[in-house]
């Protein structure tokens, strides 16, 4: 209703101005008035289109943030529940590892709940999270697993997206280590540079009789996050051979 009233008032003012200028009988003034009359709608349309683009851009940004937060929240909570069960067993046994497990688990939960919400975290904090995850898994395994984590870090204060590679590491334990009785290994490398991030992982596994042809949720989660965060600036490759699985992620930051 307000819009209709505004348009009606503007139309009335325009007609009144047109009549007054016509009565003055000044052709130059009439030409200027008509030129301005044509320009005003064009300016209004351009401005309105700009505002619409801003609204769409803001909506897309909010949608992107919501989807990224949802993807980060899908980090498998079973790990925490399983670790708590192991922690209970260690407490019953009065193991010397109990305090260490409590500390590492609390650090991981703090990182997931608080740092995981942020757009970026330091490379140092992300590495600490991965190392805590590895150590807790090794305690849970209660058997030898050859884990090699090589790091080539230019600046440990560099900011990177949080929880980006945890799904790959979790899959290496779930679909690799947990399928083997002995000889399990996980070898991976994280390289960070101001112009790129590179992550490479290899693990062995015991092939299933009927392997799934569909990628796991963790892999799909990572692919979607990479597509949202680094469109056209990343590569993701994975290969499955007889008893080894390799994944490589490269992100261009320039």
TrEMBL record:
A Gene Ontology cellular-component term = membrane
Is-annotated flag, keyword Transmembrane helix? yes
The residue ranges of the Signal transduction histidine kinase internal region domain are 66-142
Transmembrane portions of the chain:
7-24, 30-47
Provide the alphabetized UniProt keywords. Answer: Kinase, Membrane, Transferase, Transmembrane, Transmembrane helix
Coiled-coil stretches are none
Q: Which Pfam families match?
A: His_kinase
Would the keyword Chloroplast turn up in this protein's UniProt record? no
Among the GO molecular function terms of this UniProt record, one is:
phosphorelay sensor kinase activity
Recorded protein name is Sensor histidine kinase
